[in-house]
Amino acid sequence: MIIGDTAQILLFLNRDFLLNLDLQKNLQRAVINNRQGNFQQAIANYTKAVELNPYYPIAYNNRANIYSHIEKYEQALADYNKAIQLNPNNFKAYINKGLVYYKQGKYEQALVQYDRGIEINPNYAFAYYNKGLVDQQKGNKQQAIKHFLKAGNLYKQQKNKVFYQKTLNQLRKLRKN
C-alpha cells in the first residue's frame, strides 16, 4: 500500500464519518422538534437528513408523518411513496399512507394500503383497527366488528392494554348502534 493511498482513504473515511454524524444530528433534532410541536423545524431537519442521505426511508416516513399531522397530505403521500420505494417491506409506511387516505375520506384507497401493510405484517393490530374505522365510516357494521375483534385479539396477545381497551370501546359503541 502506498502512503498516498492511505491518506486518501483516511480523508474519505473522515468525510463519510462527518456526513453520518451530521445526518444523525439532524435526525435527533427532528425528533426533538417534532415532540416539542416545532413541526416546520422538524420538517427542515428531516429535509436536511434526506439531502445528506437520500436512501434513508425512515427519514421520509417520519417527515411524512409530520406532513400528515399538519394536514399537508400531498407532501405526506409523496414521502410515504418514497419510503416505500426505498423499502417495499416497510409495512408502517403503507399503514400511514392509508391513514392519509382515511383523513381525506378516500376509504377504498385507505383499505388497499392497510391490506398491503397486513400482507407484510399480519400481526400489526393497528392495521386491523384502522380497517375497522373505515368499515364503520362506510356503514359496514359486521366488517367493522370483525376487524375490531381481530385488532383486539392481537392487542391482547401483545399485552397492549391501552389499545386493547380503545378497541373494546369501539366494539361497544358499534354494538349499541
From TrEMBL:
GO biological process, one term: receptor-mediated virion attachment to host cell
Transmembrane segments: none
TPR repeats: 23-56, 57-90, 91-124
PROSITE patterns: TPR (PS50005), TPR_REGION (PS50293)
Superkingdom of the source species: Bacteria
Protein name (Swiss-Prot/TrEMBL): Tetratricopeptide repeat protein
GO cellular component: cell outer membrane
Entry keyword set: Repeat, TPR repeat
